[in-house]
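User: Hello! I'm new to structural biology and keep hearing that structure can be predicted from sequence alone. Could you demonstrate with CBS domain-containing protein? Please show me the input and the output so I can see what each looks like.

Assistant: Of course. The first part below is the input, the amino acid sequence of CBS domain-containing protein. The second part is the output, the predicted structure written as tokens.
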Amino acid sequence: MAAVNRVFVARLAGLPVFGPDGESIGKVRDVVAGLRLDQQPPRILGLVVELATRRRVFVPMLRVTTIEPTAVTLATGSVNMRHFTQRPNEVLVCGQLLDAHASLAGTETRVTVVDAAMEPTRTRDWVLARLAIRERQTRLGLARRRTAMHVLPWNEVAGLGLTDLTAQEPQGAGQLLMLFDTMRAVDIAATVRDLPLKRRHEVADAMDDERLADVLEELPDDDQKELLAYLSEERAADILEAMSPDDAADLLAELAPADQRRLLALMEPEESAPVKRLLAYSSDTAGGLMTPEPVVLTPDATVAEALAHIRNADLPAALATMVFVCRPPTATPTGRFVGVVHFQRLLREPPAELVASAVDTDLTALRPEASLSEVTRYFAAYNLACGPVVDAEEHLLGAVTVDDVLDHLLPDDWRETGLHDVADVPAEVHDQAEVHTQEADLA
């Protein structure tokens, strides 16, 4: 490994990981340390690396050749390609140690861990040698003052043993949320799933409703239900309001009828109404798959207005491929459905032109009772990313997007197991041995 004297873990998270020939492998998501019973610095066992397939695997430090400010490089060798699972004697430095509460050894001074530095030893091992801490101010008038940060040797900070991290008072999540700022919701969801239950709940408490809603949408069903059950009913209702109506309906459909009714009653009427409509359909039909919030305009809207709507950064990419033209009202269920305008057509039309002149009236619409297999064939036949759903009276009810179709075509546990095709992962990091087990046994 290239000569590096100290690496702060928070700066390591998110760095790209490359193989020995420069091939891209994934990104660093965390660092795994083996906690000890004595006061000696914990040994760094390896890195949690997220592959391009979103599978998270353990890469032992023996496989790391260089750590640079912009990247991590691996050596040729075998790595276990199974999904990373934390073992009892291990700690995730970013996930569990940052924001942890501790004290200065031999004193009653309380501190919070802001970062952790790993350093190489003469035996080529890496240890978690130093901690960046801030003193916790609790005296009246000082609670909001930002104290100075200090970097201290590991053995000068007490209260960070495995039992301490498991049983300590609830810790904040400010430093961890800072790491989440540059991550997509699906990547944050994968990180949250890897955390112990206590830490997962602390992160949920610290997140704002909009961000937590985005993350909840990306979690497997069982994790969604567990996290929703942990939240107070009032906050759970707020989170459901912040979710996409179709995702909220899918989650509520998994709950007991009494819980479902109670949460719907706590939601604002205008937020619960579309969710209730979706719950009336089976989840494997077009009605159950659709979102009731596509881009809907009247025929007298201009092309410029339509383009402004699909430029909205919060609009999912699939919904941005199509504008639905309907008679008033434009809220679903709308007035009579006229047709659709494909975004490529919008790009070719003068901005002042009316969307009515660019409407595709020949595209067949789906009925809400259409089965999943019918919807799949519909998307394949018309090469669409999004399609309209109308009722017998030709009112637009919503739109089905291709990502929702894929969600229902994939196995139920696809979010938990990741993608099984690892063909584009270099052979040097392919599964040949239980390296993670060996590293844990040596700790």
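User: So the tokens describe the shape?

Assistant: Right, they're a compact way of writing down the 3D structure. Reading them back into a model, for example: Residues 419-443 have pLDDT under 50 and may be disordered.
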